[in-house]
Amino acid sequence: MNVATSVLSRVHPVSERRQTPSPAVAASATRRRILIVEDEAPIRELLRLHLTLAGFDIDEVAEGTAALERARTDRFDLIVLDVMVPGLDGITLCRAIRSQGVNMASAILMLTARDTEADKVLGLESGADDYLTKPFGIREMVARVGAILRRNERTDAPPSAAAVRQVRSRDMALDPERREAVVRGGLVELTKQEFDLLYLLAARPGIVYSRSALLTKVWSDDTYVTERTVDTVISRLRRKVELDAQNPALILTAWGVGYKFVDVE
């Protein structure tokens, strides 16, 4: 059984598939655009069908190079990205999207037939927000899409009065209203998760946060992330804000506990 057949075999009966989406999913999907990057036509059609039924506007691309051209010119709320697409593989494509263009901060859900921890970590470290292994259940896929977009809605919302203060610390200035990070005098592009995690740590220098606490505060009610997700986002952050990501001076590890921002000197 190939991957496409495996995925299709887990879809629910037609009568169940065509149920009206829940109000929560429908509300989060209003005029939201999703780009599907998948070379297997049956899977691509399956995703298009169910995401359209959930209320999303869908664009499709079957090849990596063409997908990068679209991602650099057209703005999407979410990109569903298969790892093994021809032309430009999904890992390289994900990194390219995160490096420049209008979708640098857009959500990315990575699809792959590989299910080892190393493959998942590689996908997350390349900039993906979440990771789904084939074969997958269609309900889980739609639920994950909704969870990612709800999380992005929370970070797009205007900050509360208690959260608008700018943070200025060693080598860094963070503005939560503009969602800007300036490190050693230069503007650093961060995804929503990266900014929220960095702001939380930098706002209380020296305070150690466990991975579970960071999950609760940054990812809130998203049930599809694990403590490993914290490690991968920290790793991405260090590559962006540290002079030497292997020997961090700002975002420090509290061994056996979690992470903290360097104490004020």
Overview of the molecule:
Strand 11 and strand 12 (258-261) form a beta hairpin. This protein has helices spanning 3-8, 14-17, 23-29, 41-53, 64-71, 90-99, 117-125, 138-156, 192-202, 211-219, 227-241; strands spanning 33-37, 57-61, 78-82, 107-112, 130-133, 167-169, 172-175, 180-183, 186-188, 209-210, 251-254, 258-261. It has a five-stranded parallel sheet with strand order 2-1-3-4-5, with helices on both faces. The chain has two domains: 3-156, Response regulator (Rossmann fold, 3-Layer(aba) Sandwich), CATH 3.40.50; 161-261, Arc Repressor Mutant, subunit A (Orthogonal Bundle), CATH 1.10.10. The chain is globular, with a radius of gyration of 19 Å. It has eleven helices and twelve strands. It is of the alpha/beta class and 265 residues long.
Quick overview of this protein structure:
With 265 residues, the chain is α/β, with parallel strands linked by helices. Helix content is 42%, strand content 18%.
